[in-house]
Specification:
Layout lengths: L1 H21 L13 E2 L2 E11 L7 E9 L13 E3 L10 E6 L6 E2 L12 E11 L4 E2 L3 E9 L12 E4 L3 E11 L2 E10 L29 E2 L1 E6 L1 E11 L9 E8 L5 E5 L17 H8 L11 E3 L4 E8 L4 E8 L3 E7 L4 E4 L1 E3 L6 E3 L4 E3 L5 E8 L13 H27 L1
Parallel strand pairs: 2-14, 4-9, 15-26
Antiparallel strand pairs: 1-8, 2-7, 3-5, 3-9, 6-7, 9-11, 10-14, 11-12, 12-13, 15-20, 16-19, 16-21, 17-18, 17-20, 21-25, 22-26, 23-24
Length: 421
């Protein structure tokens, strides 16, 4: 019943629109007291990320501009007017922010958001306020809703990209209710609509509409972005006949162009509180402070909050250990260095052999791309043992026994000779 009433209203509107097109430009509008004041509509924002990544700190901004006017072009359509902007310079804007700890939803193959079980997403809404707009006539007022810093000058944040269209069409439907205008509804479309609104199509929004498809012109509820990230692991290996397997070495990790990232620190193969030993030159307090770093106690597990364009962190590792940082955004730059002290350092660290080998052989510096990074150092300390000066323990021991035996024998022999005399 409601649908029929709605279609009837818009059929009347279509006729009225065609009549208005023939009227002079100076024709009077509805009395100001009966014009429609815009309200507020909510738009959804989806941020997609890998299942093992933490939600980054990111803010997205949106602006409204008038859409292109489209005249009445058939019995099942109605004219679309260019959207009216509020008086003054305030405009119509929206904003939405994300941060570590935001609740995530696991992705699904056909969810129209991630389309993958290897992903998850955060969903948040933001409001667009049309209260400063007065709509003078019944009809459809067309706007373009755009995500700021989009397109060729994309600057959404480290590792963040658009999925689907960053510009969408927003139609505001204004109807005549017994001589008083009112906003009937707001309808968002997945892309820029070039045709006049079709009033015969009252199809509801499909919750599984593919929001990521740039060719999709169906109704939608918001925007999708993806945070692309990978992990960085760094390892230590010690070799040589004078190399200490207990010794802790200082690693320094520098991260650039990753502003907004919230990195997980995985210490499953290292120690948050290393123990001091004779081979290590660092104090237990220094090593524990570094390896136990946690920039955000409100989120479970250790985390590094990248709040500037360049950050450096120290970590301490001994033979066979490695640390992994998860959630480095695509495009970020990393550099891993160490203090080898008196050891000879070589790039890379490989543990095991054959198909079971765990190789940390990627470059020590580079950009985060499409693959996880595994890098490290092998430190070697060898010593040549001199010959002819220091004998093995077996030599001196045998020689000592022989000497003592000889002394005892000579003493007993001399004593026996003295007794015979």
């Amino acid at each position: 019943m409601k649908k029929k009433k709605f279609l009837a209203v818009f059929s009347t509107m279509a006729i009225a629109a065609s009549m208005l097109a023939a009227m002079p430009a100076s024709a009077a509008s509805y009395d100001a007291t009966k014009q429609a004041k815009g309200g507020t509509t909510s738009i959804q924002k989806y941020l997609v990320l890998d299942k093992d990544a933490e939600v980054p700190t990111a803010t997205f901004n949106y602006t409204i501009t008038p859409g292109a006017e489209k005249k009445y072009d058939g019995k099942d359509s109605i004219a679309a007017y260019a959207g009216i902007m509020p008086s003054g310079t305030t405009g119509i804007t929206g904003t939405v922010s994300f941060a570590a700890g935001d609740t995530t939803v696991n992705g699904a193959i056909d969810d129209g958001i991630t389309n993958s079980t290897d992903k998850k997403y955060v969903k948040k809404g933001f409001d667009l306020n049309f209260s400063g707009v007065s709509f003078p006539e019944p009809g459809v007022y067309r706007y373009v809703l755009a995500e700021n810093e989009a397109g060729d000058t994309d600057n959404l944040g480290a590792g963040i990209k658009h999925v689907g269209n960053y510009r969408k069409t927003l139609d505001v439907y204004v109807t005549d209710n017994d001589g008083t205008l009112g906003v009937e509804r707001y309808i968002l479309y997945n892309s820029i609509i070039e045709s006049a609104p079709d009033i015969s199509n009252d199809e509801a929004l499909n919750n599984k509409v593919n929001r990521t498809d740039t060719t999709n012109t169906a109704k939608t509820d918001g925007f999708v972005n993806e945070y692309e990230s990978k992990s960085l692991s760094f390892a230590k290996k010690v070799e040589g006949n004078q190399g200490s397997k207990d010794k802790y070495f200082k690693f320094t990790v520098k991260i650039e162009n990753a502003l907004g990232a919230n990195l997980k620190v995985l210490m499953d193969n290292a120690e948050t509180a290393p123990t001091v030993n004779n081979a290590t030159v660092y104090t237990a307090e220094v090593m524990a402070t570094a390896n136990g770093i946690d920039d955000n106690y409100t989120v479970a597990g250790q985390q590094l909050v990248i709040d500037s364009n360049e950050k450096s962190y120290d970590f301490y590792l001994q033979n066979g250990q490695y640390i992994t940082l998860e959630g480095l955004p695509k495009g970020a730059t990393y550099t891993v260095s160490e203090d080898a002290e008196e050891y000879t350092a070589a790039d890379g660290a490989t543990f095991g052999t054959g198909t079971s080998a765990n190789a940390f052989t990627d470059n020590k510096t580079g950009n985060i791309g499409d693959n996880d990074i595994k890098t490290g150092f092998t430190n070697t300390k060898d010593g040549t043992i001199p010959t002819g000066v220091i004998l093995s323990i077996a030599g001196p021991a045998v020689l000592g026994i022989a000497v003592v035996g000889g002394i005892v024998y000579m003493t007993l022999k001399r004593k026996k000779e003295e007794e015979q005399d």
